[in-house]
Amino acid sequence: MTEPKKLFIKTYGCQMNVYDSERMAEALGGQGYVETQSPDDADMILLNTCHIREKAAEKVYSELGRYKGLKAAKPDLKIGVAGCVAQAEGEEIMRRQPLVDLVVGPQSYHRLPEMEAKAGQGVKALDTDFPEEDKFEKLKSRPKAKRGPSAFLTVQEGCDKFCAFCVVPYTRGAEVSRPAGRILDEARDLVERGVREITLLGQNVNAYHGAGEGGDWGLARLIWALSEIDGLARIRFTTSHPNDMDDALIEAHGTCDKLMPYLHLPVQSGSDRILKRMNRSHTRDDYFRLIDRMRDARPDLHLSGDFIVGFPEETDQDFEDTLDLIRRVEYGSAFSFKYSTRPGTPAAERAQLPEDVKDERLQRLQGLLTEQQRRLQDAMVGKTVGVLFEKTGRLPGQMVGKSDYLHAVHVAAEGVVPGELRQVKIVESGPNSLKGELI
Ligand code: 5AD
Ligand code: SF4
């Protein structure tokens, strides 16, 4: 029997990349590859990259530089770059780093096996097409390996919104939704393999409009259909645009038991002037009204968001407006970034703010968000909440799981196994997690 070849995948960026990496590993499984946790013993290294900010893109080149020695010691080692940097800078990568054998964009990775075979014959391969064929269908025949309790499932890709700062519409292309039937099949398959919680993924997941029985399905319809799968306990989705929260989806948060009370709803800025310059096509008041409707539907909803500070022309007052919006909304968690110039996007052409102004604003904004996050987390003490256990903790008999609101919860839970969903009383709040007791 021949030794299996070893594949090392390093994943950067968003959850969709995590999902894509799993699918790429499965595709290459057909070529006799098994995954390894270290690049040192790999026969193939694949970097699944992110292009969203400058730093993320630069990391790829410094990581590739580190593989020089490995390639020199093992000339058969294949090195590939996948994901959004591959899409945006395909040829440039080949030019800047000659040790790369193949470059594959996020829409073409079902062609990886062919590309790997080519690379084996010493032919470099580049594929950054947006092909007609459905990559998800091509990758269907997957091994029925057991899975952990929580899984991602991509239902939609791409974005038509063209926010002035963002590369996604260029790297991931136009919005495309997968047909509902295929998503339901994949979800049933995941549940058979042990999954109890599915997070539906899309760059604009709530813009989902897939072909389903009887016509076009929106995200709410898809969630309701998924909720009928026995054994599936929890449904989440990320990431959403405020303009795509339709009535049915807002209502589902109040009526669908399996839909978790947590919503990631990026607003980016609290200033109408900046929102306009960002091409967000909504105002701060639109956002407030939407949050009110969401909380009417689901009063215990925890909100999360994304914020950009230091967008071109952002004044002190614009920034204060963002802080004010955060104070009014109260976030359970949030991600915040300094504006990063992305070549090819409209905002890259505008006058940029000094780095020290961005630094200072980011620090203040993160201070406020951390304070809020901590306050909401502390308020969990004394409450009873569902916890889906995922793995053993550091202490003997301890298990770690995720609350309905996505907090990490540590519980002394002798005999409880990963995948069990139990009611837990929260007794303590630490810096990054909660402690609870089974009830
Ligand atoms: N600079 C900084 N942050 C950005 N994001 C997207 N593009 C940029 C950029 N050019 C952030 C947004 C988005 C998240 C995924 O990344 O907040 O919601
Ligand atoms: Fe980027 Fe805006 Fe589309 Fe989100 S909605 S992916 S920030 S262009």
Give the secondary structure arrangement, pairings included.
Blueprint: E1 5-11, H1 15-29, E2 33-35, E3 44-49, H2 54-66, H3 68-73, E4 78-82, H4 83-96, E5 102-104, H5 112-120, E6 125-127, H6 135-138, E7 150-154, E8 156-157, H7 168-171, E9 176-177, H8 180-192, E10 197-201, E11 210-212, E12 215-217, H9 219-227, E13 234-238, H10 247-255, E14 262-264, H11 272-277, H12 284-297, E15 302-309, H13 316-329, E16 333-338, H14 355-378, E17 384-392, E18 398-403, E19 408-412, E20 421-429, E21 434-438
Parallel strand pairs: 1-2, 1-3, 3-4, 4-5, 5-6, 7-10, 10-13, 14-15, 15-16, 19-21
Antiparallel strand pairs: 8-9, 11-12, 17-18, 17-20, 18-19, 20-21
The structure holds 5'-deoxyadenosine and iron/sulfur cluster (SF4).
Residues 52-53, 165-166, 266, 268, 306, 308, 337, 339-340, 342 line the site of 5'-deoxyadenosine (5AD).
Notes on the structure:
- This is tRNA-2-methylthio-N(6)-dimethylallyladenosine synthase.
- Keywords: 4Fe-4S, Cytoplasm, Iron, Iron-sulfur, Metal-binding, S-adenosyl-L-methionine, Transferase, tRNA processing.
- Residues 5-121 form the MTTase N-terminal domain.
- It contains 14 helices and 21 strands.
- The protein has 4 domains: 5-127, Methylthiotransferase, N-terminal domain (Rossmann fold); 144-259, Transcription Regulator spoIIAA (2-Layer Sandwich), CATH 3.30.750; 261-379, Transcription Regulator spoIIAA (2-Layer Sandwich), CATH 3.30.750.200; 384-438, Nucleic acid-binding proteins (OB fold (Dihydrolipoamide Acetyltransferase, E2P), Beta Barrel).
- The model has no long low-confidence stretch (mean pLDDT 94).
- The termini are far apart.
- Strands 2-1-3-4-5-6 form a 6-stranded parallel β-sheet, sandwiched between helices. A 5-stranded mixed barrel has the order 17-18-19-21-20.
- Helices cover 35% and strands 23% of the residues.
- It is globular, with a radius of gyration of 22 Å.
- The chain is an alpha/beta fold and 439 residues long.
- The longest helix is centred in the last third of the chain and has 24 residues, at 355-378.
- It has helices at residues 15-29, 54-66, 68-73, 83-96, 112-120, 135-138, 168-171, 180-192, 219-227, 247-255, 272-277, 284-297, 316-329, 355-378, and strands at 5-11, 33-35, 44-49, 78-82, 102-104, 125-127, 150-154, 156-157, 176-177, 197-201, 210-212, 215-217, 234-238, 262-264, 302-309, 333-338, 384-392, 398-403, 408-412, 421-429, 434-438.
- Bound molecules: 5'-deoxyadenosine and iron/sulfur cluster.
- Iron/sulfur cluster binds at residues 159, 161-163, 166, 168-169, 203-204, 241.
